[in-house]
Specification:
mainly alpha; 2 domains
Length: about 170
């Protein structure tokens, strides 16, 4: 007859086997990824360059849009979106219609940064866990989609900016 101590030992052995299996599975996936990366090194590099282009396209579109706003309305008054900086440096703080400080630009900035952190984090995680043709194809399609969408936004803004410079507003 088995005692409680025997059952605890069986549970401990089973947990140890599961932990060893998980570690072995993780190590095997890592080795598979490293081998697959060596076979498709150029494709992975192209995807990394694509992610850099995505970030540059997005930032460029934001900069061009802001420059166009200043060009269209040159008498616009700038206000400090950071309340601490506004108080420390005697800048004019950004206020809403009620005269209270407007936190919406700061919230918008943090929402955008959270979206970028999530997107880049998911890309890095997916890239490090890709070891099949299907996974690489899906990763490539996702990066291509983001390049196209952010590139269209950037080149649309760039084309408008060139038109403004050439023909004026």
């Amino acid at each position: 007859m088995k005692t409680i101590k025997d059952y605890y030992q069986l549970l401990a052995d089973n947990a140890a086997r599961k932990a060893t299996f998980k570690e072995d599975k993780r190590a095997l996936k890592r080795l598979l990824h490293l081998e697959y990366y060596e076979l498709n090194k150029n494709i992975f590099r192209a995807l990394d360059i694509g992610m850099i282009l995505i970030i540059l396209f997005n930032l460029g579109a934001v900069v061009i849009t802001n420059a166009l706003v200043v060009k269209v309305e040159p008498d616009i008054e700038f206000a400090e979106a950071n309340p601490v900086q506004a108080e420390l440096n005697d800048y004019q703080p950004l206020v809403d219609e009620q005269g209270e400080f407007d936190y919406e630009p700061i919230k918008s900035f943090f929402r955008q940064m959270i979206i970028w952190i999530i997107m880049i984090g998911l890309y890095v995680r997916t890239r490090r866990h890709t070891f099949t043709e299907e996974g690489l194809t899906m990763l490539g399609l996702i990066v291509l989609f983001w390049i196209v969408t952010t590139g269209l936004d950037f080149f649309h803004d760039l084309g408008f900016w060139v038109g403004v410079l050439k023909y004026g507003i």
